[in-house]
Amino acid sequence: MKKKSLLWISTLLLTLAGCSSDDNENDIVSPIILTGEWEVAHRSNNPNVFDTADIWPFTFNSDGTGTWPIGTGTFRYEVAGKYVTIYLTNIEAYYGQPVFKYEIVSYSNDRMEWEEIPNEYWSNYGQHFIFWKSRYTSQNILPSKDEEVVSNQGSWTITTYANMITKAEFNSNPPSSEDSFFKDNTPLTTDNVLKFSNSLKNTSTNYKKFDQLYKGMQVNRCGYICYYDNKDMLKSIEGAFVPIDDLDVNPTISQKEATQIIVKHLHLDNSEIPLRLQITPFYSNGIIDVRLTYLYENWYGCFSHCECFIDAHSGEILSSNFPSKWYSSN
Q: So where are the chain's domains?
């Protein structure tokens, strides 16, 4: 084990000396470039194979291990020059393939392109990958279940993320109304409110939906759905209501400028794309980061819903799960 660790450190130090994070003047790629979480779009090099627009999450750890959604989900990796070899860390192979080899054809601190080296498992065709990093991944759009805290408060079961209630179940002694619950348990202010949206009541369903608005602007994916029994007594509440102290809802970046940034980032053919200005919270490591954003979204096929969020004040791409460059906006 010690020998392996020393070998990994030695390889890292040697490759650091010859690596450029901003260009490809040589064929030496530092393992440090790979470290972190990436969003990955993939395309088959076989023109006869249909690809979806699925985005794969990859994680490369500094100790030479990683995770991806292929095979067993975990691997170890080695970097030699501009080549990466990935070994599945379980005896179970992926369609018979235990080892994957790639050539890094371009790289920077937040973007890479890989070509899979042909092998006996996939004939002469492999995958072409585009990796990119954003401040947040698509997993940061909703609170992480792993970071939620469940507590019992008398006959109530309360689930929270960063002290924000994401679920409340009333086993008995429910609140007299949803309004009283919101008033006592959410950070309502003059600017930050919950507004009734819609409701449904029939023999099988009874609910009311409330949206979160800040200074009259919709807060993305925020608000609560309140469920009732057949006597209109509260049974549970689910959703999110994020605290917002002082957010400027006037964008610094114009919609035209935001469009240009997204078109360049996604390599779109069409410069006329629909954007929506909205408030978006991002959830990361128990922290809620609320931003004014432009949102561009699109569907590819029936199942691939892609979103790109740009900060409306700084122009930063905050999160994107589009399969960059391969699909136009048409």
A: 2-133, 141-240, 247-320
Q: By C-alpha distance, which of 227, 329, 314, 320 is closest to 272?
A: 329
Strands (E), 3-98: 36-44, 55-60, 65-67, 74-80, 83-88
Please give the Cα distance from 27 to 323 (Å, whole number): 26
Residue-wise pLDDT tens digits, 122-177: 656 678 888 888 888 888 999 999 999 999 999 999 999 999 999 999 999 999 99
Q: Is 166 helix (H, G, I), strand (E, B) or coil?
A: strand
The CATH topology of domain 247-320 is: Nuclear Transport Factor 2; Chain: A, (3.10.450)
Structure tokens given for 211: 């949206």
Q: Report the predicted TM-score, pTM, of the whole model to 2 decimal places.
A: 0.71
User: For the purposes of burial, counting CB atoms within 10 Å of the CB of 95, is it exposed (0-12), middle (13-18) or buried (19 or more)?
Assistant: exposed
Q: What is the pLDDT of residues 247-281, one digit of tens each?
A: 999 999 999 999 999 888 777 777 789 999 999 99
